[in-house]
Amino acid sequence: DTEVTQTPKHLVMGMTNKKSLKCEQHMGHRAMYWYKQKAKKPPELMFVYSYEKLSINESVPSRFSPECPNSSLLNLHLHALQPEDSALYLCASSQDTETPFYEQYFGPGTRLTVT
Amino acid sequence: AQSVTQPDIHITVSEGASLELRCNYSYGATPYLFWYVQSPGQGLQLLLKYFSGDTLVQGIKGFEAEFKRSQSSFNLRKPSVHWSDAAEYFCAVGTRNAGNMLTFGGGTRLMVKP
To answer: Is the dihedral of CA A52, A54, A56, A62 positive or negative?
Structure first.
């Protein structure tokens, strides 16, 4: 099974709401990633978890809060977002973060709209 | 720092015609190179990757890519395009530093004429 699943597929939220995005993989991967992708642009890395510990935060605003409860699950908690945060949020996983030899597998994404 | 350039933002080819998508990278060490495809509203799917060895790499869906160190290029090719190949294509370079970070090119949108 080489699948990364993400829920929900679509999410519409107001600027005062709190919501969470969920990502799951069952490939035994120990690295998980959150990317943000605006329309017609490449994915931009937000966070990297390695062995359930946050290893990279690409200067992401605190209204985005990642969480890795276990090696198979990655959450992104959202609070007080701005309309410019509307984007496709992609999750990915790889065997580990030591080398790009281990490719990243991407989920289908969550399309987020902030109103 | 590494960078990836995809010179063509849009490419249109006729179904059955051959395809070449260009990718140029800038990276001081031996690059780890990838091509991903993204259909509208979907995640990224890996087409192929290059780390070392044979510079002509075969991937899924009939795609291949050739690594040319002298030209810092990793162009993607397909001999005969199908309508289902219409998508966004991203070239990426991977780094060996912490985080297994990928640097993506800007992407090339492929349109296929019937």
So the answer is: positive
Sequence-distant (≥ 6) Cβ neighbours of residue A14 within 8 angstroms: A114, A115
Query: Which residues in chain A have Cβ-Cβ distances shorter than 8 Å to B2?
Result: none
A108 touches B: beta carbon within 8 Å:
yes
A8: alpha, beta or left? (left if phi > 0; alpha if psi -120 to 50): beta
In 3D, which of B43, B27, B47 has the Cα closest to residue B101? B27
| Per-residue model confidence as pLDDT tens for chain B (114 residues) | 789 999 999 999 999 999 999 999 998 777 899 999 999 888 999 999 998 888 999 999 999 999 999 999 999 999 999 999 999 999 999 877 656 788 999 999 999 999
Which residues, in sequence order, are CB contacts of B85 under 8 Å at separation 6+? B19, B61, B78, B110, B112
Separation in Å, CA of B98 to nearest CA in chain A: 6
